[in-house]
Specification:
CATH class of one domain: Mainly Alpha
Order of helices and strands: HHHHHHHEEHHHHEEEEEH
Helix content: 40-55%
CATH superfamily of one domain: Cytochrome c-like domain
Structural class: alpha+beta
Bound molecules: heme C
Length: about 375
């Protein structure tokens, strides 16, 4: 075929296409004919819209019972008390293994601390005493985590509590991953240990104070000293002594009374014209008379004219060696007892420092407790 013939044929063909397009004249704004509309147009229900397809008429359906979420382990427990106990028997914490590398455990604990501070502290309080800000505002306060029930609770049961909650405590399964729940429990165990240790230490101190109190009587310290402001003392009032003295200073004052004679407590000896001697602390002195308080606590009035001689004793009226037979532990108990007397004075209370000149007065109190 010649070249012109070929071109003419092409032109005729194009003209035919144009004509065909004009004849068919499709409305492009309209869809083509649809053979299977149900497949092409599925019916989308909104998550919360009513749904005629399901029996319960809802669109969102609960997972089929027994469904295990991706990545989760199978948790075959119901939110019941019986299952909480069963969880306690059947589940073990991944951190229960004592031989675990301590850095790993520490990192887990640190994560547990973070979880605790975020989710638990608001109710349980910073150290788990049940005094968090939410509990303080009227939410039923939880028991201290170191209460007996909490101490007895096994890791598995605690995991059940964290997962499903317990009475007023909601479950945290949706907010805290399994891994983090175990770490929070690891942290709670640390809080419990600390609380138990603290209580034990306090008990030890209480026992020691009681031992000290008995020693204070047995060694007759109470014959010369009192720890109660209402009793008239022979020696210095010791109820507040520990506020001004360190333990070491107190120990020295008791072991070597003459080294550190309390101000105003230098005993004086008076020889009177009738040939008698009187010793004691001067409680008042005028031109006419001197009043002394002797070691029995009795006041003696000595007219100045009767006095022949007067000396100040170099030695303390408190005997040496009172505690030389005590063990170090017993001495510590005695000091604990004196310390405990001082801590009973409320902060801010003026501390009465008594001297024989002004027994019971608090004129020369050092300010506050130091
Ligand atoms: C909304 C306040 C609240 C929050 C938050 C909370 N708890 Fe509790 N929790 C409670 C209450 C209330 C109880 C006591 C429930 C009861 O009466 O048995 C409790 C009980 C417990 C118990 C059992 C104590 C026992 O002696 O029976 C444990 C363990 C515990 N919570 C741990 C946690 C941990 C860990 C978290 C953080 C993941 C947490 N709780 C978060 C309020 C809370
Ligand atoms: C015979 C009476 C007497 C007995 C018993 C006695 N003390 Fe003393 N004590 C004094 C006198 C007096 C002073 C004041 C002089 C001084 O500082 O040594 C004093 C001082 C002290 C001080 C120092 C007070 C201060 O303000 O510096 C302490 C502490 C003390 N006694 C504790 C004890 C203890 C503890 C015992 C029992 C183991 C005891 N005393 C037994 C009479 C006694």
């Amino acid at each position: 075929m010649s070249r012109t013939g070929l071109n003419s044929l092409l032109i005729v063909f194009i003209a035919f296409l144009v004509l065909l397009a004009w004849v068919l004249r499709r409305d492009v704004s309209q869809p083509n004919f649809v053979f299977t509309p149900e497949m092409v147009y599925s019916v989308p229900y909104d998550s919360f819209s009513a749904n005629p397809v399901f029996v319960d008429g809802k669109t969102m359906q609960l997972p089929v019972p027994g469904t295990v979420a991706r990545g989760a382990t199978f948790f075959d427990f119901e939110p019941t008390e019986a299952d909480a106990l069963r969880a306690g028997e059947e589940l073990t914490s991944p951190w229960a293994d004592e031989s675990m590398e301590s850095e790993l455990v520490l990192a887990a604990k640190s994560r547990g601390h973070q979880i605790f501070s975020t989710f638990c502290l608001p109710c349980h309080g910073a150290v788990g005493n049940g005094d968090g800000p939410v509990a303080k505002r009227g939410f039923p306060p939880p028991p201290a985590l170191s209460a007996e029930s909490g101490l007895k609770m096994s890791d598995g049961q605690m995991f059940h509590v964290l997962t499903f909650g317990q009475k007023n405590m909601p479950g945290y399964a949706s907010q805290i991953s399994e891994d983090d729940r175990w770490k929070a429990i690891l942290y709670v165990r640390g809080l419990q240990d600390a609380a138990v240790r603290k209580a034990e230490a306090e008990q030890l101190t209480r026992d020691s104070i009681e031992t000290g109190r008995q020693l204070f009587e047995k060694l007759n310290c109470n014959k010369c000293h009192t720890v109660s402001p209402d009793v008239k003392p022979v020696g210095p009032f010791l109820g507040n002594i520990a506020l001004a003295y360190t333990r070491e200073q107190l120990r020295i004052a008791i072991e070597h009374p003459s080294k550190t004679i309390a101000e105003g407590y230098l005993a004086q000896v008076f020889l009177t014209i009738d040939g008698r001697t009187h010793s004691g602390f001067v409680t008042s002195e005028t031109d006419e008379q001197i009043i002394i308080r002797n070691t029995d606590g009795n006041e003696i009035v000595l007219p100045v004219d009767d006095i022949e001689d007067r000396r100040t004793l170099e030695k303390s009226a408190m005997p040496e060696g009172l505690i030389k037979d005590l063990t170090d532990e017993e001495i510590q108990s005695l000091l604990d007892y004196l310390k405990s007397q001082a801590s009973e004075a409320a902060p801010g209370e003026t501390v009465a420092v008594e001297t024989p000149e002004n027994p019971g007065s608090d004129d020369n109190s050092p300010d506050e407790n130091n």
